[in-house]
Amino acid sequence: MEQSLVIIHARFANDGSVREIGECPSGTSPQDWFNALSRHSANGYESLSGGRGVFRLEPALIELIKAEVLSLAT
Fold it and tell me: How many domains does the chain have?
């Protein structure tokens, strides 16, 4: 059986901070979302050229991380 992964794209500013990132929950900064994804994805991140990178994660894991981030925000 083939495993389905969600690809989340990130774009970085010249200073290394996260400027844009996909799947970001409302009310969460792009940098905080990147940090949360990074904590939960041991081998799911790949750096790309041009100040970009991607996370390749299972949908269930993304939902778990979103729930955690949103619970911390309240």
Answer: 1
Could you tell me if 57 and 44 are in contact, meaning their C-beta atoms sit under 8 angstroms apart?
yes
Q: Judge whether 1 lies within some domain.
A: no
Asked whether residue 46 is domain-assigned, the answer is yes
Tell me the residue ranges of DSSP E strands in the chain.
6-12, 18-21, 45-48, 52-57
Residue 68 Cα distances to 3, 15, 59, angstroms: 24, 27, 14
Question: What is the per-residue pLDDT for 1?
Answer: 54
Render pLDDT for 23-42 as a digit per residue (tens, 0 to 9).
999 999 999 999 999 999 88
pTM of the model: 0.91
